[in-house]
Amino acid sequence: MTARPLPIAAPLASLATLASLASLATLAALALALGACREKAPPDVVVAAGWLEAREAAVIAPAAGRVTRVTAELGAEVGAGDVLVQLETSVVEAQLTEAEAALDAASAELERVRSGPSAHELAVAEAALAAAAARWDGARSAWAAAAAGARAAGPAGGVAATAGATVAAAERAYLQAEAELEAARAALGALQDLPHPAQVTAAAAAVDQSRAALDAVLARRSALALRSPISGRVALRAVEPGELARPGATLLRVADPARLTLTVYLPAEDVARIRPGQAVTVTATENERTARGRVEHVAAAAEFAPRGAQTKEQRAGLVFAVRIAVDNAGLDLRAGMHAEATVATD
Prior knowledge:
The protein is an alpha+beta fold. About 50% of the residues lie in helices and about 25% in strands. It has helices at about 10-40, 90-115, 120-155, 155-195, 195-225, 270, 310-315, and strands at about 45-60, 65-70, 75-80, 85, 225, 230-235, 245, 250-265, 280-285, 290-300, 305, 320-325, 340-345.
């Protein structure tokens, strides 16, 4: 009987099965080793694990407006304060022109009040007073002449009536001229009394109000240039030029890969030894790279651990969230990596 050769697929399948079993055995061994390390951790050390997250900041539209420019592509490096999105400014630019004109006018009036009347203003006021005095003198003479003519005509007939009407008209003209003369005297006196403290105060207040209005318009214009709150990389770009931004909408999101956070969950007996500011050593599970960290926040209230955090037994009990700030200046760690935190509590 002739022996038949074995199919090639059989040894390959066997090898794959063996490799798979070996990988599972390796992972199991690593898990047991990690558990053993935790169980054997010194009493003055707290060990916990979690997932690294990048610190992010959103670029949010302060008001409705059309986007005229977006300066950063997805993944681009940006610096804190860089303008990333520009909203339309046509309306606020018109308001700015008006506010600047109002401030210029108020400032000119304040300067005029402070410096007193010019020689030309005084000359005009003096000329107006002289003209008013001449009209008053003429009106007085005309009134006196009309009165003398009425007396000479006597009380007889229509002549007396006509003379009386003439006297009345002359009297009204005189009184009008007298009022104009007093007004001219007051105007000249007001100029000669400048600068008046009350006028200076009022003019200065008008300048302050105009400047405040201008500052408000400038602030509105500046708010339409949306800047990056932090340095990092653009992790989200949700807007394009020409689109209409809604108030409060997130237009871009910037993530700082050099500043990560690690949130771990500790039982009460461990969290009692943790304080904000404590130094932490953070080790990535994937590449075993380490980075320095510091406890940033310890939750004041207990909670059920999130799904996937720690072990099944730990998820069944109450834990306290501890947020750790990780200095990743060397960029050895990445957001999304699983990492272990070691805190020396002595």
